[in-house]
Amino acid sequence: MARPKLGKGDSERLQMVISREELDAIEDWQHNNRIPSKSEAIRRLCQIGYSMETVIPNATDHADDMLSAVRLFYYYLVRSMALLEDGGKVDTEELRGLTEDLLDRAEDIHLILMRENNRIVPLTSRRGFKKAIAESIESESEMTHFINVYLEGGEELRESTLMREVLAEMTPDDRAYYRTLDPNRQIHFWRVRVGAKRVSLFRQKEDT
After folding, report:
1. What gap in Å lies between CA 135 and CA 130, rounded to an integer?
2. Residue 53 maps to a domain
3. Domain count, the chain
4. With contact defined as beta carbons under 8 Å apart, do 183 and 122 qualify?
5. Where are the beta strands (DSSP E) in the chain?
6. What is the CA radius of gyration of the chain?
7. What is the pLDDT of residues 108-138, one digit of tens each?
8. Residue 171, in any domain of the structure
9. Would you say residue 107 lies in a domain?
């Protein structure tokens, strides 16, 4: 009997030996995510791990940059406290610059992890494997677009700016709620929030 078509090419049978602990972990993941078979669970886990080789070093590099920014911010606070104790003044422009730099680096990490989360979520759902892969690619592509706009600017820079403002205003409850949404609803979440932000800014401009 012909093997089921799982991708663009022919399907191949793979035999492998793993430990009991590894098999238990796979079966637990399969059960927790309601995946119909061990084979499909392994395929999904391979897809999830596929890009980690680039995602983890990228996120780590950004985390290193953020740590440097945090150190600079800390040293600034120490110097400023000493100045205030001696009756001096704090350099508010330097404070603003350091704060903006720290915020930018935190947002970089958040966007990297958000894109990876958007890619993984469909692969942990109960949908068929092909549909899960397609939704994973589409969701990651949507988030990549936002990130490219944020990093490169251009015609859609205003949309990216609005997105950053929405991110800054999100409460811990908002973020927790966002993480419970499936990829399509996450995209809808951004469109609604950014649209509402655009309307709010327009009304403020009219009032002034």
Report:
1. 9
2. yes
3. 1
4. yes
5. none
6. 23
7. 787 788 778 878 888 887 678 888 888 888 7
8. no
9. yes
**How far is the C-alpha of 80 from the C-alpha of 128, rounded, in Å?**
58
pTM above 0.85, yes or no: no
Closest to 151 measured CA to CA, from 136, 142, 161: 161
Yes or no: say if 11 and 3 are a contact pair by the CB < 8 Å rule: yes
Tens of pLDDT along 31-60?
A: 998 898 999 999 999 988 887 888 888 888
122 burial type by CB count under 10 A (0-12 exposed, 13-18 middle, 19+ buried):
buried
Residue 197: both structure tokens together:
């932000």
List the one residue out of 10, 126, 107 whose CA is nearest residue 66.
107
Range of the structural domain that residue 93 is part of: 23-156
CA dist 163 → 117, 167, 186 (Å) = 17, 6, 13
